[in-house]
């Protein structure tokens, strides 16, 4: 796409930002939909994040995605937050309003839910087991409670981190020790790995699936590799599995729609294009 002087410009702010798949994804949609717009990587160091966000309206950007490590700083910088961003204290999508204010939202949770819905028809209910207690787990926990999970059990290597995460939420959430991670699977209807274990280059996830019921849905938010060892083992046992790529794509939809005025498609072609960039 050759840009004009009237192009709509959005981007992703992170530090580092070179690993981000978002420019490829949004670039694909812009090209596909023949939009006079651009989506650029913006590498902003932590000591410059406040000034960079404050400058978005002056620079004429229509908005940005925000990634690690800036999601909390972005929540502070925004004039308004949607319910998810406010509950999580973290913003991943900013829309610059016509009067130059920053509207912050967090679409990680809805991206996670949309992925589970489309990938395995999961729309709530039952007991969910969440492995991990980092930023990704916070979005997943919020989403599961929003969707009406009957019980959410958080299992994390560092118990204190799981306890503080759970304390941020009201609802049927509890913590179980990391050593019980195989035991708690016995009556789970959903298992979500939000840890970095199983990611390319990271340690494997050591989890005994013997007690996992055959109809439990297993989701890994890791997407490199696309089929993690956890998903492969779950699939071999006959469980329905959902990979992490869909969450990445679905969380991007609301921002694109707000900035460029068109709801972008989520389908096999988009997945294949993003996957190609991971190879
Ligand atoms: P993110 O914000 O992407 O979720 P994070 O905050 O670094 O990333 O969290 C990574 C998660 O993976 C944490 O739950 C971490 O457990 P700790 O809280 O105990 O650090 C988990 N994790 C990373 N390496 C691990 C390992 N070797 N064994 C068990 N859990 C691990």
Please give a handful of descriptors for the protein shown:
alpha/beta; 279 residues; binds 2'-monophosphoadenosine-5'-diphosphate; Rossmann fold; globular; 6-stranded parallel beta sheet
Written account of the structure:
With 279 residues, the chain is α/β, with parallel strands linked by helices. It has 2 domains: 8-107 and 252-278, Rossmann fold; 109-244, 3-Layer(aba) Sandwich (Rossmann fold), CATH 3.40.50. Helices cover 37% and strands 20% of the residues. The chain has 11 helices and 12 strands. It has helices at residues 22-32, 49-54, 56-59, 71-77, 83-88, 108-120, 135-146, 159-167, 229-236, 245-260, 268-278, and strands spanning 8-14, 37-43, 63-66, 80-81, 93-96, 102-105, 127-131, 151-156, 173-177, 190-193, 217-220, 240-242. The strands form 2 sheets. Strands 2-1-3-5-6-4 form a 6-stranded mixed beta sheet, with helices on both faces. α1 packs across α11 (268-278). The longest helix has 16 residues, at 245-260. The protein is globular. Residues 132-137, 156-158, 161, 194-197, 203 line the site of 2'-monophosphoadenosine-5'-diphosphate.
How far do the termini sit from each other? 24 Å
Q: What does the average pLDDT come to? A: 97
Query: How much of the sequence is in beta strands?
Result: 15-25%
Name the overall outline.
globular
- Strand arrangement within the widest β-sheet reads 2-1-3-5-6-4
Radius of gyration based on Cα positions: 19 Å
**Count of individual domains:** 2
Summing up helix and strand content along with how strands pair, one would put the structural category as alpha/beta
Number of helices: 11
């Amino acid at each position: 796409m050759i840009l004009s002087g009237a192009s709509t410009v959005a981007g992703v702010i992170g530090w580092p930002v070179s690993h981000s798949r978002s420019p490829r994804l949004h670039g694909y949609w812009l090209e596909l939909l023949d939009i006079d717009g651009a989506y650029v990587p913006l590498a902003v160091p932590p000591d410059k994040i406040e000034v960079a966000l404050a400058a978005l309206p002056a620079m004429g950007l229509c908005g940005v995605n925000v990634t690690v490590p800036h999601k909390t700083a972005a929540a502070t910088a925004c004039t308004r937050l949607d319910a998810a961003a406010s509950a999580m204290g973290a913003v991943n999508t900013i829309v610059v309003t016509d009067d130059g204010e920053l509207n912050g939202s967090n679409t990680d949770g809805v991206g996670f839910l949309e992925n589970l819905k489309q990938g395995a028809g999961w729309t709530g209910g039952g007991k969910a087991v969440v492995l991990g207690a980092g930023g990704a787990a916070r979005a997943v926990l919020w989403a599961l409670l929003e969707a009406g999970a009957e019980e959410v059990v958080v299992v994390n290597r560092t118990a204190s981190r799981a306890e503080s995460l759970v304390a941020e939420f009201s609802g049927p959430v509890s913590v179980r020790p990391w050593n019980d991670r195989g035991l708690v699977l016995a009556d789970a209807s959903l298992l979500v790995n939000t840890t970095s274990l199983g990611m390319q280059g990271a340690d494997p996830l050591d989890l005994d699936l013997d007690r996992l019921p055959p109809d439990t849905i297993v989701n890994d938010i890791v997407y490199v590799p696309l089929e993690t060892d956890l998903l492969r083992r779950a699939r071999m046992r006959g469980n329905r599995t959902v990979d992490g790529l869909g969450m990445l794509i679905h969380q991007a939809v609301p921002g694109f729609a707000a900035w460029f005025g068109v709801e972008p498609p989520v389908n096999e072609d988009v997945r294949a294009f993003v996957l190609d960039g991971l190879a």
